[in-house]
Write a structure and sequence with these properties.
Blueprint: H1 8-26, H2 31-68, H3 73-83, H4 87-90, H5 94-97, H6 121-129, H7 138-151, H8 156-169, E1 187-190, E2 193-196, H9 197-207, H10 213-223, H11 228-232, H12 236-251, H13 260-289
Antiparallel strand pairs: 1-2
């Protein structure tokens, strides 16, 4: 967004099912009413498609916007040359979009890194240093793509992948438990709607802020300005450690507390810090590549 999106295929089947009900009604009406109903269905389909694909985009664009504002002049000139002015913001969701293309099917598992509970800092460091130890997942993708972009600094595809995956790295449920598929298997009632823990962190918490990506980005940059120099000193290891702490806090949350308002309040600072850290870390990665 910022993790596995709600499947567009699943949404399509839902829409198709609703359309079947439309058809039953249409058959009992005259031709004029049929045309009107089809037009209404088309509008419904368009709105459902947009909402299904828009939530996760906000988080990724927030991170990319923060990164863009912290690039060196040299790095900014290079990424603008490759992707267009502020292109890293507009292309931040590209890695999710191409998952519907069979040509990029191999990249599906790059979006997440399942982690065990109770990992130590040494254990995390070891996994980062041996990114294929548990398969070709998020740690492997970032390691290999960073090396690839360093070797071929005009590789736009590698750049777009990196922009997205640094964002994924800072979404706590992208490093969730294998047993529940990063929170996808944990049911969650969000303001009267059935969803799952992963989706809450992918977009629902961000959506609850009622800000555009640019407004939220500006807010975070103002909020964390006093700690900016501190965050700039951190590398990937420190980012993963910080995200892992939040990940464990999410899993240990008292689920008997069903107040969504309290959940938003409880994790507000964690959410803000993950987004800001993601932006600064992405800037660090790109500034290091384009020295």
């Amino acid at each position: 967004m910022l993790i596995k999106k709600i499947s567009l295929k699943s949404n399509f089947y839902l829409i198709l099912n609703k359309y079947s009900n439309f058809v039953a009604i249409i058959k009992s009406h005259n031709t004029t009413k049929m045309k009107l109903t089809k037009k209404l269905f088309t509008l419904c389909l368009l709105s459902l498609t947009i909402s299904a694909s828009a939530w996760d985009a906000v988080g990724h664009r927030i991170i990319a916007d923060i990164a863009y504002n912290n690039l060196t002049e040299k790095a900014k000139a290079q990424v603008d040359k490759m992707l267009g002015k502020k292109g890293i913001i507009y292309e931040a969701t590209w890695a999710d979009e191409v998952r519907s293309d069979n040509k990029y099917a191999y990249s599906y598992q790059w979006h997440f890194q399942d982690l065990d509970d109770n990992m130590t800092s040494a254990g995390i460091k070891k996994l980062l240093e041996n990114p294929k130890a548990e398969g070709e997942h998020l740690f492997f993708a970032l390691d290999s793509l960073t090396k690839r972009l360093k070797a071929h600094n005009s590789d736009a595809e590698a750049l777009k992948f990196i922009v997205h995956f640094v964002g994924d790295l800072h979404q706590p449920m992208h490093m969730g438990r294998k047993t529940d598929k990063g929170g996808n298997g944990v049911e969650f009632n969000w303001f009267g709607k059935k969803t799952n823990l992963h989706s809450v962190w992918d977009g629902a918490l961000i959506e609850n802020q009622k800000m555009s990506y640019s407004e939220y980005s500006r807010y975070l940059q103002d909020k964390f300005e006093p700690r900016k120099a501190e965050f700039k000193k951190y590398g990937i290891l420190q980012s993963v450690e910080a995200v892992y702490v939040v990940r464990n806090r999410i899993y240990s949350y008292d689920t008997s507390d069903t107040s969504n308002y309290h959940y938003v309040y409880f994790f507000a600072d964690n959410l803000d810090e993950m987004l800001y850290r993601g932006g600064i870390q992405l800037a660090n990665v790109l500034n290091n590549i384009y020295k």
